[in-house]
Amino acid sequence: MSSPKTDxxxxxxxxxxxxxxxxxxxxxxxxxxxxxxxxxxxxxFCATEEVLHPGVKLNLHASLLLTHYGPAYVDLELERFGxxxxxxxxxxxxxxxxxxxxxxxxxSSRDARETYEAWKRISPKDxxxxxxxxxxxxxxxxxMFHAGYADKHTDESFLRLLDAYEKLPIFPKDWLWMTGVExxxxxxxxxxxxxxxxxxxxxxxxxGISSRLSGPLGVLNFLLMFSAEGGYTARGGSHGxxxxxxxxxxxxGGKIFYNCPVEKVIIENNQAKGVRxxxxxxxxxxxxxxxxxxxxxxxxxxxxxxxIGEEHLPASALAPLKRFDYxxxxxxxxxxxxxxxxxxxxxxxFPEANNTxxxxxGAETMNDVGRxxxxxxxxxxxxxxxxxWGAAFNYCIADPTQAPPGQYTLLTWAIVPYEIRPLGGxxxxxxxxxxxxxxxxxxxxxxxxxxxxxxxARYVNTPHxxxxxxxxxxxxxxxSGSVNEAQMWSWKPFAGCGAPKTxxxxxxxxxxxxxxxxxxxxxxxxAACEVIDDxxxxxxxxxxxxxxxxxxELLRRQGITQRFSVD
Length: 567
Description:
Layout: E1 7-13, H1 17-28, E2 33-36, E3 48-49, E4 58-59, H2 72-75, E5 85-86, E6 93-98, E7 104-108, H3 112-120, H4 124-137, H5 141-149, H6 155-165, H7 180-187, H8 191-199, H9 206-209, H10 214-228, E8 233-234, H11 239-251, E9 255-257, E10 262-268, E11 271-277, E12 287-296, H12 300-308, H13 315-322, E13 329-338, E14 358-359, H14 366-379, E15 389-394, E16 408-417, H15 429-447, H16 451-454, E17 455-461, H17 463-469, E18 507-509, H18 522-534, H19 549-557
Parallel strand pairs: 1-2, 1-12, 2-9, 6-14, 12-18
Antiparallel strand pairs: 3-4, 5-8, 6-7, 10-11, 11-12, 13-16, 13-17, 14-15, 15-16
Helix pairs in contact: 1-11, 1-18, 3-4, 7-10
């Protein structure tokens, strides 16, 4: 180890789950790949730690695993390497949204008809609108999700997407120019349906539902996703995904360098040739060469302003990069341990809620939605009283191993702004930690009354804690930046980049790209595809999976056949 190997085919900067997935694809295909991670552990945003008391496993960021949506689940044989995806046994619904009047809007995790029947209990008219939407898109679902979660996003694929959407008669003619809020307000009638439909796409950032184009697309993605399958946790917590990717990569011969932050990408004649490590690395200022490609799993601005340097970028790339936007919403998190199973107030009318893994709460009306957007995007102050809307998770009903016997863990993500300049800046979150957590809890107890008597302990993460953990996220809940029309599809991370390619030869991105930067591993998959295709090497036979193959197989084992449409 005093003289590590310094020459590789491919170097990956960053050991997040998408970086690991991209590296594993390339290593398994026969290339020699090294991953350089600044921390002593992979998977910064896909971590599970015992920060309260022994045996209580808290997922410190990634909580809803969508790995089964992407091709990597099958291609990389992640089950073989220890990943076991779980959700509540027999659960029909993947997501619910409770209201203080005892109603709940339910979304099936396996069958569009189940969602349709549940909606009829709230609004028969909106149930028929939902039916029209999913019946239209049902036959296209697997192909649409592969295009969204795996393929490189291009201008041509965006135009095909628009063409498909514009053929649905119930869509308003000007839907392309609507915000997500306007779109939902236009096509649905019932206030509770509207709030519930907006709540899940808002978990990717309220700037998404308040922006044009990306807002309607986010709403449709949500409706179709939970008609198709929904999400899981992993046995032992989210970090199980990280472990499986590391095992896969190392099994095929890959090398991970921990405690090795990269200082610079070595560039010669506009071509990436390797990396130089930081003076604080395990191998201080050491240089490592890459004969084929260097890939960054770090977000856009730290990558290009830090690792590359402005002097290597043409004005056509530098100008849009300087406009890259991290502003928007981030997460304030309450974690709970209870000594009784969570019992939601809405379960008197909708007993299915107590066996559902993912939920959200807090906004009761569309006016509440507007207030949240105003606080986060305009006033830059945390909403008071809080509107959670970052999603919430009921872990132990899906995976009892995440807490000692007889205990249950939950998470609530409250959407808040990061900067809070009127209060003195993001460092002030340290002072607000417990007082704001109390406010979130007071709201939560209205929906989960037995929290007050069954709570054993609480742990709090503030937005500034997330930045300390992963500085390259820029204060946003996702390192890929703000969710808006200027930073989506083929224009992500910035117009003219061509991600996963970049203006630098042999330098690629698997972060802040058009493909989803989530636990479906689409960004890592897309980057690996781009590298192997540019080499003219050809993809091996095992590199063939399509989106949804893993999801279909998981349901088949449970004796369930997916139904993408109501009829």
